[in-house]
Amino acid sequence: MQNQRVIRIRDLPPLRGGIELPPAGGWGRAMAPRFRRQRPDKITAPETFSNPIADGIYHALRPLDAAASRMEEKWGVDRLPDLVTPETASRFGMAKAKLDAALEADDVAAVVHRASVMMRGWDALDVEATAAGHQPVDVVAWLWRDDDDVPHAFVRDASDAIRYGKANTGVRCWTMGEIVRVAAAAEERSSLVGRVKETWPGAEVTADRPKSGDLNDELPF
Description:
It is a single chain. This protein folds into 2 domains: 22-136, no CATH class; 139-215, no CATH class. It is flat, with a radius of gyration of 19 Å. The protein has helices at 28-31, 52-75, 86-104, 108-131, 158-167, 176-189, 192-199, and strands at residues 4-11, 142-145, 151-155, 172-175, 203-211. The protein is of the alpha+beta class. It is 47% helix and 14% strand.
């Protein structure tokens, strides 16, 4: 089993209706990067597993991340700050800073309160931009930020990728065809991936890295 490539897969609950990416959100790279924290897990995050503070903060951020993701899908990445007044943007920025402070302090109650404030802030920004006559982006895209906070947009085809990329610089645009080819390449390295995805539609690939070991290694899923 030397130099075997292990693609780690975690079984997740089924997605809720239609096409849905995992919850993620933020105010864009400049003002409010993703607040998402790693899910406490006995295997992938043992230092936070069964920790009430870590679990409380993780779940408090999920609704905020989902709301922020919807706004970025609607308005584009890093676009909404340009569509509201400086006063509104400033208030939102201060709310984001207070949430950051609560996260740094691992204060669950404060995170819950500040996350709720941020969600109301997102709604206020949306209402103000709409009232000012601004239009959402006209390309359907699903957005996700990776662990390094790099934004990725998943669109239908190359023409949508070109249009979305011009309106949202700094975003990595992927077409559905590219995703299928990337998945096929992963399956070439390990046929287990495709079989698991067919059997458990909610399973998620969480890592793809070389691994060496012996026959007593943990199973790769």
